[in-house]
Amino acid sequence: MELRLLSHESLEDLSGNIKIIQNKNLYRFNEDSVLLADFTRVDKKSRVVDLGTGSGVLLLLLFAREPSIEGVGVEIQRELAEMASRSVSYNGLAGKIKVINNDLKNAQQFLTKNSWDLVVSNPPYIPKGKGRTSPRREIAIARQEIYCTLQDVVNTAAMLLKPGGSFAMVHRVERLPEIMVLFKKNGLEPRRMQLVAASENKAPYLVLIQSWKNSSPGLEVLPQKNLNECWKRRK
After folding, report:
1. Whole-model pTM?
2. Distance (Å, rounded) from C-alpha 74 to C-alpha 87?
3. Is residue 144 part of a domain?
4. Which among 1, 154, 229, 235 is most buried, taking Cβ atoms within 10 Å?
């Protein structure tokens, strides 16, 4: 398929035969999304929503793992949503994955409540007004809670999931207590969790966590993942 690349865009290998468009002037996906896709338990024929899909990387990686899924990516930034749509079309997945340019807080207006098998998200990590704000608006939106908060993401995920459906997310480990409280308030039971560190002698800085809606309690904590070991094995 012929692909139209805009200024500052490149087509990059992602997984298997899947390729993705990236733009150096917009938010580029990093290892956090790759880690979340590897961590997430996804069943065959799952209907998946990615909240804050960005370039569409999570849905493309999940499809590479399980080609029977169908997915919807919700992205508030028009340029990112349009770029993600072109990546989906280039990979011949327009019939399987759809990208919607809208605010995830409005999801009940365009997605059916209580009907999705899996929701995933790599949301902004930093509360608004804290930390250093990027001078580039597009980058700031992806990193800081300018358009949505952690609570918005968890509330929306719980609203979309059918009973027994699951929500998988990556976030900063220091916000884990807040995550657990929000999960409980929304009827999401954390069942799988994994901490991520840069190396064996470093403290964890990320948490990968998957919860199930209306599930019985019982948390499985997986062995800590160390990034330097992961990259060595991939080389």
Report:
1. 0.94
2. 15
3. yes
4. 154
